[in-house]
Write a structure and sequence with these properties.
2 copies of one chain form a homodimer. Chain A is α+β, with helices and mostly antiparallel strands. Chain A has 3 domains: 7-152, Butyryl-Coa Dehydrogenase, subunit A, domain 1, CATH 1.10.540.10; 159-284, Butyryl-CoA Dehydrogenase, subunit A, domain 2; 430-556, no CATH class. Chain A contains 19 helices and 11 strands. In chain A, the strands form 3 sheets. In chain A, strands 3, 4, 5, 6, 7, 10 and 11 form a 7-stranded mixed sheet that branches. The mean pLDDT of chain A is 96. Chains A and B meet through helix 8, helix 9, helix 10, helix 11 and helix 12 of A and helix 8, helix 9, helix 10, helix 11 and helix 12 of B.
Amino acid sequence: MPYTAPVSEFKFLLEHVVDIAQITATERFCEATPDVVDAILREIGHLCDGIIAPLQREGDLHPAALENGVVRTSPGFAAGYRAIAEGGWLGLSASPEHGGMGLPLTLNTALNEMLSGACLALQLCPLLSQGQIEALEHHASDEIKAVYLPKLVSGEWTGTMNLTEPQAGSDVGAVQTRARDNGDGSFAITGQKIYITWGDHDVAENVVHLVLARLPDAPTGTRGLSLFIVPKWLPDADGVPDAPNGVTVVSLEHKLGLHGSPTCVMQYDGATGWLVGAPQGGMAAMFTMMNNARLGVGTQGIGVAEAAFQHALAYARDRRQGRTPSGERSILGHADVRRMLGGMQADIFAARAIALSCAAAIDMQQATGSAEWAARAAFLTPIAKAFGTDTGIAVANEGVQVHGGMGVIEETGAAQFCRDVRVTAIYEGTNGIQGMDLVGRKLSDGGEAAFSLIKEVEDTARAARDAFSAEAEALWDAAQSLREGTEWLLAQDDLNDRFAGSVPFLRAFARVLGAQFHLRAAQAAPRGNRAALMRLYFAQQLPELGGLLAQAQSGAGPLYALDFHAQGD
Amino acid sequence: MPYTAPVSEFKFLLEHVVDIAQITATERFCEATPDVVDAILREIGHLCDGIIAPLQREGDLHPAALENGVVRTSPGFAAGYRAIAEGGWLGLSASPEHGGMGLPLTLNTALNEMLSGACLALQLCPLLSQGQIEALEHHASDEIKAVYLPKLVSGEWTGTMNLTEPQAGSDVGAVQTRARDNGDGSFAITGQKIYITWGDHDVAENVVHLVLARLPDAPTGTRGLSLFIVPKWLPDADGVPDAPNGVTVVSLEHKLGLHGSPTCVMQYDGATGWLVGAPQGGMAAMFTMMNNARLGVGTQGIGVAEAAFQHALAYARDRRQGRTPSGERSILGHADVRRMLGGMQADIFAARAIALSCAAAIDMQQATGSAEWAARAAFLTPIAKAFGTDTGIAVANEGVQVHGGMGVIEETGAAQFCRDVRVTAIYEGTNGIQGMDLVGRKLSDGGEAAFSLIKEVEDTARAARDAFSAEAEALWDAAQSLREGTEWLLAQDDLNDRFAGSVPFLRAFARVLGAQFHLRAAQAAPRGNRAALMRLYFAQQLPELGGLLAQAQSGAGPLYALDFHAQGD
């Protein structure tokens, strides 16, 4: 069953739910007229449906492989990547100065979701390049920018991120890779990095690594980290890849999913690199791109969720099994099948609206420089990441269930979505870390950003009172509960009492925001499926809120009373 | 990290939570003295830890394969199976008349869980034999019993269940396989069956199929189905496998998990079989064993959950990453890691207690013939099946999350639990069908069985008032909410309004039962981990109840208002 990019859904959301007009009214994004937006969404749709989606199964069946030290990618992936590059899609949001289109991240988020729905394993490659482009735009010297950015934006070269080491996963400060000054402006990088996505491949002529490493005598911990750019092939004076660099692929990981995406162990043996940003400025550079990368990963979850939903719906429409109460001949007639599919769809809508509104806040921050937009973007980012990826996992899992026995037969394709999407809740900061970020750093403003979002929810509820009184009231009540929950967290003296409830709190926030967006959509299209989907969400999904907030406010006590060391011995 | 069978946990549960003394006080089960129970649990533990658990990864890496029409099983599986057979474990609950031990199903449930935790792919083989033994004990002629039961109980032969056909999955009534009377007491069976677990193998000398088929001129639907016994090798007059029968393996399925368990497409070409039970009595015979098989599958989920929990806990204990608020050096110091592991453990306890109390009710039904015990067993069965398998899936998924990036690397083993356990929510009646069974057939007594269980919850709450006043009150309130939810379902005129809320209702019931069992355990061991785990469940898991009951009572309306046909076109 082929994937169909949800182009008209994005149009509706951009117009009615996240107010793209506000973005395109700024000088920075004034070129993104409605016509341009429409044309771009349509083009992305063609690319994803026609060229990228057929690669999804290929990547799973024919994994990327290491042959004589070089990664050979899955059949068709090189052509698929070239189609993305030639469409100019690597540079959708990149600066026009280096060949980018300079369009809003909101549109780029739509691009990323549709590519992810079509083939997540391939989409990772351009996603990493996007992150590298952003990092270089903000932190690299003009010289480095001039050499690397045009190549990355055109897609001739691709980018990777090298943070993780065996002893340094979530704890980036434990990184041990060393950098020695060569005395000629370059550095010699030595160390091993793991989990390097698309660390090597045969789809483009060069691979450019951004590597976190430690200069001699640098302090321990994150403060001592610097960022280096290390190309696989060293460019000559004209920027043409010329001499091989001291970087090799040691092995590929054997993963649950994403078989088409080579996950490399990389060895740097005195590889030549150049500083990006200031010495010891590695974390600052990382943080610049991390927020957008996290949004990007949340968007991956939503893309897979959409694909898994379409796949399950198509199966349910065709499958006849048992008499149904409604007399419908397919299993769509069964209430529980509808409950599953409706819940999947309602959550996809919520997660997508949250991701787009996060992207919109980043765009507004960029366009206006406003601290308020920045705070809003920062607050929404961990929610978009964790809720988007949790939704991906939950929807893919429910998609298998809709298929019944066929769901676990690999040829059906439903199980692959589960396998592929699972890691999105882990990489780019586990969802637990997203929760800690939300209740820690993102509430460190005394709750200003949180309360401003809650206030907006109340405004939405107020505005919907006439058209949807019951749901408006439910949303209002939800906002009050969420406010109380937020106040409870803020009142805790021990930060660990916040951390204990961080994941349920994040989810509670997402539930309320999702309700708000559903209500906005229903107001824009009060008849038909939009309102029906909104009502289903209020009946089936929003009721989770009470339990989530109770969990969020139960503190660290019960968690630390349990003795895990006494067990299993 | 090796699996350790939770022997002492079972002892505690049997003694303090499900009251095995009540069972062993009956004449039927008087031989199951505490010494016998202890010795048996210990033996099972040795078998599972030492012999079966090492096969878990083997089965995944070296799947069962079809070679020249015969299934070759994974390395070590034959020896593992023989150890199970030679221990007499196939017949733990089988009648002594044919070589069984005649011990309570409650003990057999412990056996099944521990075998599943050690290696689910292998455990499926004896589980299927158990089901066949039970079916033959109840429905087969003395002649068939005499030939087949001793072989099945000794494990020399294994059993399979053949229900599903491509067009007949959950809708068993659509079965088309035909049976023609040979005029000599035997029948010629012709048709194709799919999803036949352990349909062929090399671990024992014969494979005995129970096949649902239709006699000539039989009515359509389930009423027209008869059950036949069809051995792979036809026994001679002395019961020795002699001539090949007309049954072949067409292919093996390529599955998400359980690679060590051969899932066969079977072709019957006029294969010789004999009636089990009356003509057109196939469904009656199926239903006899289906309840216990469903409990068995629920138990599989719990076994995998236990193994995944142990695996994740061992990883967390070892893994150092980041400064933790508690100063603990492993990631066990992080509140969210404790939240995940504590939730896993609390749910495993709840699911295990529910499964054991279901088994205990079946034992009491068998020992006393009481209709009340029968109704209780029937009511608990879909809850044990769905909650046990949902817990398996959720815990395995959380186990991957605890591992962080290592979780999706197959060598770690965490991901295999997810892949292996996924199908348990589907086979032996999807969990959606369990929900429909619960709110349909199992509430057709006007709620008598449900209210009797709720009354027991209230009694538990009352008894705990002094020792645990806050939790006793919470449990009492939960019982009231559950009663209201049950009354709401019973009051619906349209059965589909019940069906719409059936899955959340089932889960709500499990949540309350789980709370009850946790409280009982804490009362029996009021200090230390039992009480801490109970408090964690009340803080983190029980609060789901409100949302679940709201979902359960939202009716079919919102689900049918959504037009799935209008979408994606």
